[in-house]
Amino acid sequence: MNKPMRIKFFVLLSCISMYLNAQLTVRGKVVDEFETPIPFVNVFVQGTSNGTTTDDDGRFAFTIPEKKGTLEISLMGFQTQTIKISPKVTFLNIVLKEGTDVLEEVIVVSKPKKRLKKKENPAYKILKEVWKRKRKNGLDLVKHYQYKKHTAIEIGLNNLDSSFVKTLFKDEYKDVSSEIKYDSDGINYYIPIFLSEQIANVYGNNKTNTEREDIEAEKQAGLGAQGFVFDRMSNTFQNVDVFRNNITLLRKSFVSPLSTDGFATYDYVLYDSIVENNKKLYNIYFFPIRDEDLAFKGNVWIADKAFSIKKLRMEVAKGANLNFVRGLTFEKEFEVRKDSIYIPTKNAYEGDFTFLDKNEANKGLTIKKTINYDNYILEKAYPDDYYLKSNTKIRPDQYEKSEEYWQAKNTDENKETYNLIATVKSKKQIKKLTGLINTVSSGFINIDALGIQLGPFWTALASNEVEGIRARLGFRTFTTKDDRFRLSGHIAYGFKDKEIKYGAEAQYLLSYKPRITTSLAYQKDIEQLGSTLFNTNQLLGSTFGTSALFSRGNNFFLSNIEKLATNFDYAIHNNFHVGFNLSHSRIRSASPENFSASYFDDLGNLQSTVTDVASDIYISFTPGRFVYGLGVQQRFGRNIFPSLVFNYRHGYKGFLNGTHDYDKIQFRYNQPILLGKFGLLDATVEGGKTFGKVPSSLLSAIPANQSYSLVPNTFSLLNFYDFVTDQYVSTHFEHHFNGFLLNRIPLLKKLKLRSLATFRAAYGTISDENRSINDAVTNSRGTRNILYNVPNKVYYEYGFGIENIGYGNLRFLRIDAIWRSDYAAPGNSIAVPTPKFALRIGIKPDL
Hints:
Distance between the termini: 44 Å
Structural class: mainly beta
Number of helices: 9
């Protein structure tokens, strides 16, 4: 950067710093003469659009650029009040009296008790103009653009009373009391425990539809920096595009208030208008027709003539009843240039999460994500290939900057937050609380002194016919979430067979860019090979068939496996991986007296052990998946994305005593489809074919599920090994209505339940040569081994379910009623006939 540019840059930074430092947060509560809270009251600084509306409890809070001004509080049917504000005013208690005072130039349209038809609603004409322009308005109107983006993510504990804060800080309370922030209600306290910031430069080319983002600096501090769950929570809010008809949030589809089909979901009220900088702004409120729908309530300011969005504030209706969510709020601000180009200046997202219920008195967790945009330059072009490059982050410390850098960038508020976090993170009470949150959500318990984590605790106990009660202790090394090396493993013991089982896997990140990982694993354990079709880079067996505590029928169809395996994974892109596996496995029945895995070799001799020496080459493509973390184990956001996996496997006979030569190709394609207010359809198709003569252990068993819980991509009314194939195709469809049906039934909608429908089908065949080596084998009891039954007359299961079952915020239960088609049971002597109908339970938290 040359000297004149440095001077301009310094002046610009100084101006921005002066502007940010001159901010004032206004808080208060509005009640009537009987001290009843009044919702939806307009609270704005006179002559500006800076302000907000009160919530259901009459509370409000917002930040203004100046440290003084005149506040105007108005609502139809009440006398308008004006109050001067200054830094000395910390909380406003406002009483509105009934009257007829209204703002000048206000067009008042009350919300009708009976819904107006769309074309009769005064807001319709304005929204129709917005719809016409929403894809042709804004930065899309210029050929090239660039700007600076400052993202801050903060996590903190909310709704803390003074006694809790005094207990927490004890003798330090007086020293830090001035730094502790008020909660959004202006009464209780809020304590931050984690803060991260990122500054980036964005360059866009609308001619080629490409955008480049270069990270300039990053910083983070607090307890959340070490936890997987805080990492996921801090990435909860991705960009919310209100100009799309549907907004994806927490894997659910919300109808946007600016949707062209919005009148089917919302009531709109053209409330008033103001004149700001010689431009007229319309203020339109929107309310969900049904509070239980996945929709928002709030208001939007729309500029006259250009019909562009100046400001929007919306929150998820409480009736939507998202798990663990007490409140979600979104604010967006835009600057309008040349009467048609609107550019974003600020996005602010805030989530309030609680564990048990939405009671306002309960303590909770707040997540705030604020993005400020500035330094816009329009129509400055770079060569087309410039937009295809970017400074990719490959190391955790790559964009760390000095404290001097951040001193120039941070506001006083952020500096106070960092100081408070430094004080808080040493407190035992806070450490215990954040540790508990990490443990409950991840299943691992931190042992800081040893640098390891024990878990996951939900696999600690299981039961099956071979092992009886199975106790398992798992572990993994853990220094930070971005560890380059990680060792994980387990040890298990069966109280019936009195055998110890174990496994361990070492993973190492060879290269940050390109991202190359390698791993080596060894295990000697029992697996249920009939519960999954294939995996790619998971070396240690962890099939649910040996981890279920309660199951129906008998499960002797287990295999003893001793395996040594290695993996090499190359990431062409975050979401495009190519990998190679090499494994050596010795497989035999875990219960020979009940289940024979024996086969006839080429010489006609009976063999009880399969030695499988095989290599795998796989391709994994997951476009749109949100990936974060730079360690050997990355994490994935809960966003919606398709997934395609292709695997080619070759078995080597004679090499390292391998017993079979064969080839197997398999694929799996998953596509979640958002259908707007009609919900989410999750569709999976998978198939495969085995070439060569192999025993049952190496064929493809249609994945069964004998547990009482729901497991993705399995059949709940099949027994393990009911169907064994060498070529197959299966489909799994789940449609989640997200309340679309039940919210329309008057009595049921109060229960806040959601409905779903499922359909699963499988088709497969087996060759005569694969039947011949196993079909006549008998087990030690003299009964026949697995009969090769195949679903050559399409087997299917269908069901209907109810989800979102629970109490308060704990609504993670799901119950499915499932039916199956008729099929010829294989007739194995130890198999228990499967029911034609069953109820199954699923457990799946939303967050």
